[in-house]
Write the structure tokens for this entry.
Amino acid sequence: MPELPEVEALRAFLDEHLVGKEIARVLPVAISVLKTYDPPVTALDGARVTGVARHGKFLDLATEGAAGELHLVTHLARAGWLHWKDVLPSGPPKPGRGPLALRIALTGGDGFDLTEAGTTKRLAVYVVHDPGEVPGVARLGPDPLAADFDLAAFTALLAGERRQIKGALRDQGLIAGIGNAYSDEILHAAKMSPFKPVQNLTAEETAALYEAMRATLGEAVERSHGLAAGRLKAEKKSGLRVHGRAGEPCPVCGDTVRSVSFSDSSLQYCPTCQTGGRPLADRRLSKLLK
């Protein structure tokens, strides 16, 4: 799933390639991708892109046209992606069983496709007057890389939390933009178990978690800066230390990276770095091995 660093890199890429250009047509291929119908997607035809913003994992294209200011807001979900094309194929795309979900055609002949792999279709596109009209955007917590999101703000945010750290970091209503992969990376950098309760964090541990979060996300954004959209997935994978690397040696201590499976996802961690050498049980067994 694209998370904050990848979406931020896409934002920067689109800001460079899209702002100032005119939309010829927005062509939905999979009808399920459109989550709003008023204003209609045709209201974007002829509009000029005035800016590109990011809200957590949401991309926001601001436009100005005959219908006034409109925003095309996209959430790529787990299996969605954006493919920029300097020259789009001629003729309208044909609906079918392929991954293409929506095409943005510009008047200059370039544009981009939104695709979604797999059979579970969660990619979402909204056309709204204000991005705050999108429910997922409206409920977002603060951006973890925002200049004013300091340690004091992070500490206050965690006050009263009773969940495990992994779940808290992934809650978009608490902190915007962190998903499964980067929560694993942050906790590895902070040397913390993903199942440690937030209320058990000491002041020193909270500070270490904050620093790990800012450093991990900031470094990932820096690695992705300036890359073309098509290279971002490979860059994300190459920069991960534990997530998706079960069975490989931890790059810090050399212990074997372990995995914990859930019904529809998994997490990865290093026992030596994070759990005092103790392996965590598969959560389907709901116990920590003693």
Remarks:
- Helices lie at 4-18, 135-138, 151-158, 165-170, 180-190, 203-224, 232-239, 271-274.
- Strands lie at 23-28, 48-55, 58-65, 68-75, 80-85, 100-106, 111-116, 124-128, 258-261, 266-269.
- The CA atoms of residues 134 and 282 lie 36 Å apart.
- The chain has a mean pLDDT of 92.
